[in-house]
Design a protein that fits this description.
By secondary structure, the protein is of the alpha+beta class. It is built from nine helices and nine strands.
């Protein structure tokens, strides 16, 4: 939390966050445009924002794209604003959704939703929690079923015994315990643009695991908002499960 407030105390860093709020997923060159400072100085400011978890980065080819990450702002809300009445919390929720504003859809390779969280666990344990049918059933409400080999099918199957899957896809890439890429679509979802793609990137970060989820090729802003709300809830429950052995009191997606 100290790093978050230190990062927010500088006007230039707040300007960088404002630029990402208005147009998420920018390269260093675009962020520097019109700032009146060198790329090296801007890189130092972005480094402090990234260390505070206010900015996430994803590499696309030779470019590194920067995204505003709402997790620390959510933690501030949970710590100090939870006692306020519901209308105020709903207003803050609107601010949070604005911070997770729509990605610029012009570059076709640009991720449409990126979320980064830090989990006090091992890489192997986080990987298991993403791919084990019984564990995913506990915190996700669905069992992820596959042999997790590239090219294999996978299913996001209901836990009510019906055997029905609400999401199906193909394992595009699996490099345990660091990277998993799957396609993502409803079983009867005919998408001319093809299924969306979800990437899980896991990296060691001190005594924690940095987990970044990237959801690409979403149809429109409505689907992006739906994905943002769903992933925020699932990943919060995953983090709670791995760090405490329990689950959130009320599933946020209900």
């Amino acid at each position: 939390m100290d790093q978050v407030f230190k990062a927010l105390s500088d006007a230039t860093r707040r300007l960088l966050l404002d630029r990402l709020r208005e147009d998420n997923g920018q390269s260093l060159g675009r962020l520097c445009d019109g700032l009146g400072m060198s790329r090296q100085a801007a890189t130092q400011h972005l480094g402090l924002l990234e260390a505070a978890n206010l900015v996430s980065t994803v590499k696309r080819g030779r470019e590194k794209l920067h995204y505003l990450n709402p997790v620390p702002i959510h933690e501030i809300q949970e710590r100090w604003i939870g006692k306020f009445d519901r209308p105020r919390l709903e207003a803050l929720g609107a601010v949070k959704r604005k911070a997770e504003s729509a990605m610029d859809a012009s570059p076709v390779t640009k991720p449409e939703f990126v979320y980064t969280t830090y989990i006090e666990a091992t890489l192997e344990r986080v990987w298991e929690a993403l791919t084990d049918a019984d564990i995913t059933a506990g915190y996700w409400g669905h069992s992820n079923i596959s042999d997790w080999q590239p090219g294999s099918p996978w299913e996001h199957r209901r836990t009510d015994g019906s055997g029905l899957a609400d999401v199906v896809g193909t394992v595009v890439e699996a490099a345990p315990p660091n990277r998993l890429v799957v396609t993502w679509a409803g079983p009867d979802d005919e998408r001319p643009e093809g299924p969306s793609t979800v990437t899980f990137d896991l990296k060691p970060y001190g005594g924690t695991v940095q987990l970044t989820v990237t959801h690409e090729n979403l149809r429109d802003e409505a689907e992006r908002r739906l994905a943002a709300g769903g992933w925020s809830a699932v990943l919060a429950n995953l983090k709670t499960y791995l760090e405490t052995g329990g689950l959130l009191p009320l599933p946020a997606w209900s």
